[in-house]
Structure formats: structure tokens, C-alpha cells
Specification:
methyltransferase; EC 2.1.1.177; about 160 residues; binds S-adenosylmethionine; Ribosomal RNA large subunit methyltransferase H; five-stranded parallel β-sheet; Alpha/beta knot; rRNA (pseudouridine-N3-)-methyltransferase activity
């Protein structure tokens, strides 16, 4: 079980009003206890200092970066479940990404895709994936594996033959 009150998102830059903000707010309502803090955008080195200064004791540093490790949603749920005895801080970078020094200090670098997203979209996708992970860990019906959906579609086709 994910303890959401031990999970934070540290975001460089603000989320402006608009549909990304509304989408993020919807997932935040489902993720009661999860905290988001926003740090001022500047240079990657200064942003790194601000991130490190805002980390709590024994908080795992999970950086979001397109060049990080790729996970399926189930793999990410397993990873978060394994880390769930720790405090977790997901960090979303600014326009120029994370400094190499911050990357060297990370406990994990997580890629949401090889594509580059604006930071506000990365935040929304991350929130959705944390929500998805929490439902996978709880065994809820929200997540459906591609193989399961394909199997159902195949079953529907073969039952009509
Ligand atoms: C506009 S992107 C920065 C792109 C920049 N080229 C870089 O070196 O990271 C802003 C932030 O959004 C997040 N982000 C964007 N695309 C991502 C992806 N595919 N996977 C994980 N995080 C992503 C990262 O935290 C990134 O630092």
C-alpha cells in the first residue's frame, strides 16, 4: 500500500491555470496526502541546490527525465511498492532539465517516455501514473494490461466465429 502522505512532488516552476492545471487537480483529489511543492525556476545548478535543500531526511530522490529508466505501469507500481517504506520525492525539472550533479545524487531516474514533455504535462502524467500505481498495488480495476485487453478482444472475435 502506498502511503501518499510520504510522497511529494517537487516541481521546478509553477503550473499555470488551464487544462493541465485542472487535470492535475483532479488527480490530486484522488491522491489525498500527496504534497506538491513548487520551486522557482532559474539555472539547473541553482535549481539543484534548491531541490537538495528542500529534501527531508531519508527522502529518496526520484528524478523525472526523458533519459531515465523506462518502466511499464506495473513495473513502476512494483518499484514504488518496494520503496514505500521510505519518503519519496519525485522531482520534475525546469526548461533545461536537471543538472548532472543532481542526476548523480538521484536514487532513481524515471523516464515517462523517450519523448520530451513540457514540465506541466510531465506533472499531470506523473500524477496519473502514481494514481495508477496505487490502484495496481490495491488490486483495483482502474488499470488494465494491454495483454488483457488484447486477450478480451481476441475472445470476442473467436466467440463470433
Ligand atoms: C521541458 S522538460 C526539460 C527538457 C530538457 N531537455 C532536459 O534535459 O530534461 C522539463 C522537465 O519535464 C520532465 N519531463 C519531460 N519529459 C519527460 C519524460 N519523457 N520523462 C520524464 N520526465 C520528463 C523532466 O523532469 C524535465 O526536466
Amino acid at each position: 500500500m502506498l502511503n501518499l502522505s510520504r510522497i511529494r512532488i517537487i516541481a521546478i516552476g509553477k503550473q499555470r491555470p488551464g487544462w493541465l492545471h485542472d487535470g492535475a487537480a483532479m488527480y490530486c483529489k484522488r491522491l489525498v496526502g500527496l504534497e506538491i511543492i513548487e520551486l522557482k525556476d532559474s539555472t539547473p545548478d541553482k535549481e539543484a541546490q534548491a531541490v537538495l535543500a528542500s529534501l527531508k531526511n531519508n527522502e529518496k530522490l526520484l528524478l523525472l527525465s526523458e533519459d531515465g529508466k523506462h518502466f511499464s505501469s506495473r513495473q513502476l507500481a512494483n518499484e514504488l511498492n518496494e520503496l514505500s517504506s521510505n519518503r519519496l520525492a519525485f522531482v520534475i525539472g525546469g526548461a533545461d532539465g536537471h543538472s548532472p550533479q543532481l542526476k548523480a545524487k538521484a536514487d532513481q531516474i524515471i523516464s515517462l517516455s523517450a519523448l520530451t514533455f513540457p514540465h506541466e504535462l510531465a506533472r499531470l502524467i506523473l500524477l496519473e501514473q502514481i494514481y495508477r500505481a496505487s490502484t495496481i498495488i490495491q488490486g483495483g480495476p482502474y488499470h488494465r494490461d494491454a495483454a488483457t485487453a488484447a486477450g478480451k478482444a481476441l475472445g470476442a472475435i473467436t466467440s463470433h466465429q
